[in-house]
């Protein structure tokens, strides 16, 4: 739809007031302030994006790594060291390990570097509405960009090395490129759309859910267009009108040639997406076997590499679906669904109240108050609404990061409603300036609504999303997922790394919670103590070592410090290793199965400085013993 056509149609309104429809009509006088915004939509959007990037990058490395972050970061370090990598659905797609392999090589393995790619992609989200500009008004583009930039949940998880923001951003930009292709018929958008969708599938398996949501939302929009009166025309008349319109526009055009042209580009675009998927999912075998790195010397391996990569992708998607169907420890899937929906609604009310209220207003206004509802707004509304119960059904554990997938589409109808408020405010300010004082109430009301929105978002952002010390104290319902260590461990971790790097002595894990039989098992993730030999001479891992994973996120910090690792299961082993190895650091879980590990180490480690920290929030206390002489040497040298 062309811009002059859409500007002539009334906008959706969250208010039944008749003045809304009148002021939105192109024949009605427009505000000078609104004109200025319309003339500078892209610069304003770029300014919002720049601020979004700044908020995501400043202080990015302050928060201690979450367990999930520590696991993927450790795997990336091992991949850098060995050149060996294989896809494992439990840690989601291969995008972050491969990209952070490059980032770590340039910036070094730091908490800042591991989150940087996610922060940049999340910071660019406000640009996405620009791709839909043919179907949105200027103020709506700006308002949507603001919601995507400053929503606390989107901001927090843009400062977190997880794939949720990545997959949401890539799939949203992919959809935008397809819409631009439909608007302009320029094939570069077709290629960009498929390439971005492929990147979405390299980040997380639930990219398939985005496609399902698009199909479902598209079907609902089509149903509304075909089987409800459209512009007060019966469905049959409407279909006849559209048919005549298409036939008139294609008169004199060689449709076969046109379709062949676009079909050829479609094939190449799909091929490009397939190559991206193969590149990311193909195993890296360190120069042996079927690995991507071997294609340079043996191109004939490409079919086997491609088959392995695409098979792994499909198995990852099905594995994700099977986990989603599991009851997750609840009495039934229904019980889990009810619990998760309740928690999601609570989190939306606590951390995204403005976006949710405006989204509902935008959907209701567009669906029931506009004379001709716009398909694009209803599409995003349907997509966002179904995502809340959909992810409650599809999540195997509860975490606020799942709401990213609902908030991104809901930002569009929310922006439509907010734009309506802003438009009224701009018009009222002009009226007051022109001494039409009878409109001053509208100006005050609009400015007040905008101020409340801004203050509420800033308060939530400063109190949660932008505070690295923000960790859960009690309860389950919080933006911070439970596997987040408390921030007070940061100073101790800095001492641990410094002492290890200075002395070159090992780190000793003590107790049945943390000790494993074979520390070298971490050389090639996943960490396991047990392998079996197959009849064909190959080896196969049969179980992962839970004790190693309970250490998270410590392996990330210990590995980047270059420390050797030791394990002591009992007091005899502890005594022996303290005597013979003189470890720089001893780490133990405070208590396990009724055994007070802290007390046992206290009796033996008299020359160590002790610090205790919660490695989950709350609870799960870990005790660190850092060698006193090494600390004293560090303090004297500094």
Task: Briefly characterize the structure.
The protein has 638 residues and is α+β, with helices and mostly antiparallel strands. It has helices at residues 3-7, 18-24, 32-39, 41-57, 67-82, 95-107, 111-123, 138-150, 152-158, 164-184, 187-203, 207-227, 235-249, 255-281, 302-325, 333-351, 353-369, 375-394, 404-433, 440-465, 489-503, 546-550, 554-560, 571-580, 597-602, 628-637, and strands at 84-85, 284-285, 507-510, 530-533, 539-543, 565-568, 585-589, 591-592, 595-596, 608-614, 621-627.
What would you note in describing this structure?
This protein is α+β, with helices and mostly antiparallel strands and 638 residues long. It folds into two domains: 3-455, no CATH class; 489-637. Helices cover 61% and strands 7% of the residues. The protein has 26 helices and eleven strands. The strands form four sheets. It has a five-stranded mixed beta sheet. It is globular, with a radius of gyration of 28 Å. It starts with a helix and ends with a helix. It comes from Natronoglomus mannanivorans. The chain crosses the membrane at residues 42-61, 112-132, 139-159, 165-182, 187-202, 208-227, 259-282, 344-364, 376-393, 399-422, 443-466. Residues 92-223 form the Glycosyltransferase RgtA/B/C/D-like domain.
């Amino acid at each position: 739809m062309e811009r002059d056509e859409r500007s002539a149609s009334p906008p959706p309104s969250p208010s039944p007031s008749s003045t809304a429809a009148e002021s939105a009509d192109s024949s009605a006088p427009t505000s000078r302030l609104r004109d200025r915004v319309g003339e500078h939509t892209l610069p304003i959007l770029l300014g919002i994006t720049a601020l979004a990037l700044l908020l995501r990058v400043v202080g990015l490395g302050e928060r201690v790594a979450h367990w999930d972050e520590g696991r993927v970061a450790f795997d990336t370090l091992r991949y850098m060291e060995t050149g060996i990598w294989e896809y494992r659905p439990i840690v989601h797609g291969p995008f972050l390990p491969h990209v952070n392999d490059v980032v770590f090589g340039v910036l070094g393995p730091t908490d800042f570097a591991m989150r940087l790619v996610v922060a940049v992609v999340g910071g660019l989200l406000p640009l996405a509405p620009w791709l839909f500009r043919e179907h949105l008004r200027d103020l709506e583009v700006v308002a949507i960009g603001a919601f995507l930039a400053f929503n606390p949940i989107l901001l927090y998880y843009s400062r977190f090395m997880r794939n949720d923001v990545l997959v949401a951003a890539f799939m949203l930009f992919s959809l935008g490129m397809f819409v631009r292709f439909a608007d302009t018929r320029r094939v570069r958008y077709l290629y960009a759309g498929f390439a971005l969708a492929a990147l979405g599938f390299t980040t997380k398996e639930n990219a398939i859910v985005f496609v399902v949501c698009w199909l479902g939302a598209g079907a609902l929009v089509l149903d509304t267009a075909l089987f409800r009166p459209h512009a007060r025309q019966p469905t049959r008349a409407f279909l006849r009108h559209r048919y005549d319109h298409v036939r008139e526009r294609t008169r004199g055009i060689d449709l076969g040639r046109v379709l062949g042209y676009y079909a050829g580009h479609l094939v190449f675009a799909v091929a490009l997406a397939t190559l991206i998927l193969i590149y990311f999912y193909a195993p890296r075998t360190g120069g042996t076997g079927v690995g991507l790195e071997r294609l340079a010397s043996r191109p004939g391996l490409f079919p086997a590499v491609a088959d392995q990569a695409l098979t792994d992708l499909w198995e990852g998607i099905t594995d994700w679906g099977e986990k989603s169907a599991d009851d997750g420890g609840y009495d039934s899937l229904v019980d889990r669904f009810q619990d998760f929906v309740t928690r999601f609604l609570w989190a939306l009310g606590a951390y995204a109240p403005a976006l949710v209220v405006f989204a509902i207003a935008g959907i209701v206004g567009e669906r029931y108050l506009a004379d001709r509802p716009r398909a694009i707004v209803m599409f995003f509304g349907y997509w966002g609404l179904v995502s809340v119960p959909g992810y409650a059904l599809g999540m195997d554990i509860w975490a606020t990061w799942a709401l990213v997938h609902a908030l991104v589409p809901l930002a569009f109808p929310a922006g439509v409603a907010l734009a309506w408020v802003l438009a009224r405010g701009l018009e009222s300010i002009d009226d007051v300036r022109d001494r039409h004082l009878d409109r001053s109430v509208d100006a005050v009301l609009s400015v007040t609504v905008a101020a409340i929105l801004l203050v509420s978002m800033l308060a939530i952002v400063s109190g949660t999303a932008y505070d690295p010390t923000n960790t859960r104290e009690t309860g389950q319902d919080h933006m911070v997922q439970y596997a987040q260590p408390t921030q007070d461990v940061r100073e101790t971790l800095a001492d641990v790394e410094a002492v290890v790097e200075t002395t070159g002595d090992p780190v000793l894990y003590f107790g049945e919670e943390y000790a494993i039989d074979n520390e070298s098992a971490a050389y090639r993730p996943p960490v396991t103590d047990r392998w079996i030999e197959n009849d064909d001479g190959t080896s196969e891992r049969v179980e992962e070592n839970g004790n190693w994973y309970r250490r998270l996120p410590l392996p990330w910090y210990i590995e980047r410090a270059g420390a050797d690792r030791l394990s002591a299961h009992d007091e005899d082993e502890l005594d022996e290793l303290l005597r013979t190895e003189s470890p720089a650091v001893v780490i133990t879980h405070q208590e396990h199965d009724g055994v007070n590990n802290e007390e046992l180490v206290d009796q033996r480690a008299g020359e160590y400085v002790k610090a205790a920290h919660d490695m989950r929030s709350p609870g799960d206390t870990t005790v660190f013993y850092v060698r006193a002489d090494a600390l004293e040497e560090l303090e004297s040298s500094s």
